[in-house]
Amino acid sequence: MCGIAGFVGPVPGDLSATVLLKRMIDAIGHRGPDEQGIHIDPGVGLAHARLSIIDLSSGQQPMANEDGSIWVTFNGEIFNYVELAERLRATGHRFRTHSDTEVIVHSYEQNQEQCVDDFNGDFAFAIWDSRRRRLVLARDRMGVRPVYYMQIGQTFAFASEVKALAAIPGVDLEIDPIALDQTFTFWSPIAPRTIFRGVSELPPGHMLTYQDGRIAVRRYWSLQYPKRGDAKPISESVAAEELHDLLVDATRLRLRADVPVGAYLSGGLDSSVTTALIRNYTKSHLRTFSVTFESSEFDESEYQQELVRALGTEHSSVLCTRDDIGRLLPQVIRHAERPILRTAPAPLMLLSQHVRENGFKVVMTGEGADEILAGYDIFKEAKIRRFWAGSPGSPMRPRLLRKLYPYLVGLQGQPQPYLEAFFRAGLDDPGNPFFSHLPRWRMTSRLKQLFSDDVRDAISDYNALEDLSGQLPAEFGQWGPLSQAQYLETSLLLPGYILSSQGDRMAMAHAVEGRFPFLDHRVVEYANMLPARLKLRGLREKHILRVAMSRHLPETIANRPKQPYRSPDAESFFGKAQPEYVREMLSEDAIRQTGLFDVPAVAKLVEKCEAGRASGFRDNMALVGVLSAQLLHMSMVGKAAQGARQVAHAAG
Amino acid sequence: MAESIEPAIRQFIAQNFMYREGIQSLRDNQSLLEQGLIDSTGVLELVFYLEKTFAITVGDDEVIPENLDSVQQISSYLRRKLTPASQVCVA
């Protein structure tokens, strides 16, 4: 994969451009351990940390076009680079390398900003157009690769991760209370807002131009869905065939690498599909990886082993214990750079380390299927709740809710009226655009009880749901209910948590690149337009995917119900092996120091956890949310400023 | 014994379900569900507490809002369970 960084304008502080770029790129060196490069022109600097995957010998960056007037620093892959290079050569462009990177500069020469429309890939790149004196930043459609930016006086700076921006003199990170409110509602701030005041994230499917000291951001791609009742009439068998072919091609493109490609095999349907596709369409020896857990509540080894046998892969796994999670959380937060509400990213960091130790840099993985093909429980919940809303007094209808979670033993024991009370949120208003997500968002919002008075004052009467409502696309109201729910999940949770905190940041911590066939934009566009009944058939999720892939998979896997990926939460931080930082971070002193949370409220929560009484989603999310926010504050707020001041002082 | 039921219930709820507000802000007739103070796992914690503290057995069909959704309802429910008459077997 790689890391990118750079700036336009005067160099802040007393540093030279070279030293500044080196500092920035060193901060994200973990993303690109193989090589580093910088390019400096008057008033601009670009830097690159390389994880070499395509064109190992000559794909160095930053890279230029034939006459050096266009430079790029690029993180990601343009999977259809072979075809694009052919087309560009045919119109006279001369290539020096065999890299996908070079396609970007020539495409930009040809089409300027429109070049992104041709790219099938996962990318975040910066182009310096020296003739127009313009910087162009672009991010892929689904939010796989990150890019952040900020203005520091007269200087515009960008980087793959916030820690590279924090290395700039004069940058003093602070937590944005509104972003905290959004995180404790939607599980993530809404891009371009980030958890840090003044630091912006380029949203997925957007481009930014910086010219004459002005920032202009525009969207080049959006999620589109059919109007309610207007989905194209298509038979199940045709849809299955077309989806199958698209997935085959998406996988084929994503196998393009000059290093071996492995695969994650979680045991679930999605990674089974991606692995089976590799197995059936390539002669490559297939190496698969997974993470396992101590408790059967989380572990999926049985299914993993079944797939290993069926597909004949060479498999290895790494066990993630509660102690591992406890130990890893600080590192997880340093990489995720935002508060999280679940520990699920931690085992994935362990997994990417395992992949690296086994000599692999690239893994194929199944993210995206749940969003685009309606795999998540939230879609089924919404369907049942709509059915229930049709007859709200019915005692029978809500009983369907229990069928949703056969794997959650604790939930099966829950009394019906209390289960209903949770899912009842918003039942009286099925026309609400957020109908599908209200139970989750309301539950998460209860965590705001833990906010300090200062944070509450800063948030004042800000309303996250109203804010989001104003940001919905104009067509949202015309979409069918499943499409609306899918849009919310795909535009918020996917880039804001799944692809970032669980995906890119955890894999990049060990310089491993994930590749996602389900996020090929042609697959996404196709799936979005399918009628709801092919995605959620009754309560059978990802129906069309099962039909499309049944020829490649053992029946038990093709029919396997959804088991969401989860890991032990609060229990990982209490008990005999409690890591020292936990007590420190949750102490009264530390809570006072960050000023984010209410001292007595946190004390109550901690007491509950210490007594082993933290059950249920709320307490677990609260603990992980508070602990991760504390860790984030301690590692990135104040200290970063202190560090930069020290540097400036030494240089002066 | 009967007089100390409400304070004990209030204390338990404040300690376990109210991160922030104090006991004082909880009214006896306030619905715990509506206030978002209790959810489906929370009610099981409450049941466990009642069984342990008051030496009763709460039947599955008794875990309903009518019995458990406010300090007042919980106290009434407890008093019914603790009255000797309720322990008499019906022949």
Structure description:
The complex is a heterodimer of chains A (652) and B (91). Chain A has 652 residues and is α+β, with helices and mostly antiparallel strands. Chain A is built from 27 helices and 17 strands. In chain A, the strands form 3 sheets. Chain A has a 6-stranded antiparallel sheet. A 6-stranded antiparallel sheet of chain A has the order 4-5-6-7-11-12, covered by helices on one side. In chain A, strands 15-14-13-16-17 form a 5-stranded parallel sheet, sandwiched between helices. In chain A, strand 2 (35-41) and strand 3 form a beta hairpin. In chain A, helix 5 (177-186) crosses helix 15, helix 9 crosses helix 10 and helix 9 (322-336) packs across helix 26 (616-636). Chain A is globular. Mean pLDDT of chain A is 92; it is low at 644-652. By secondary structure, chain B is mainly alpha-helical. Chain B has a single domain (2-86), classed as ACP-like (Non-ribosomal Peptide Synthetase Peptidyl Carrier Protein, Chain A), CATH 1.10.1200. Chain B has helices spanning 5-17, 40-54, 65-68, 71-82. Chain B starts with a helix and ends in a 9-residue tail after the last helix. The model of chain B has no long low-confidence stretch (mean pLDDT 82). The chains are: A alpha+beta (652), B mainly alpha (91). The A-B interface holds A 410-411, 413-415, 417-419, 421-422, 442-443, 446, 449-450, 598, 600-602, 604-605, 608, 613, 615-618, 622 and B 15-16, 18-21, 33, 36, 38-45, 60, 63-65.
Mean pLDDT of chain B: 82
- Taken as a percent bin, the fraction of beta residues of chain B is under 5%
Category from helices, strands and their pairing of chain B: mainly alpha
Residues in helix, % of chain A = 40-55%
CATH topology of the largest domain in chain A: Glutamine Phosphoribosylpyrophosphate, subunit 1, domain 1
What is the CA–CA distance across the termini of chain A?
36 Å
How many strand segments of chain B?
0
Q: What's the SSE pattern of chain B?
A: HHHH
CATH class placement of chain B? Mainly Alpha
Largest interface: A-B, 28 and 20 residues
Give the CATH topology of chain B. Answer: Non-ribosomal Peptide Synthetase Peptidyl Carrier Protein, Chain A
Main sheet: strands, sense, barrel of chain B: none
Give the tally of β-strands of chain A.
Answer: 17
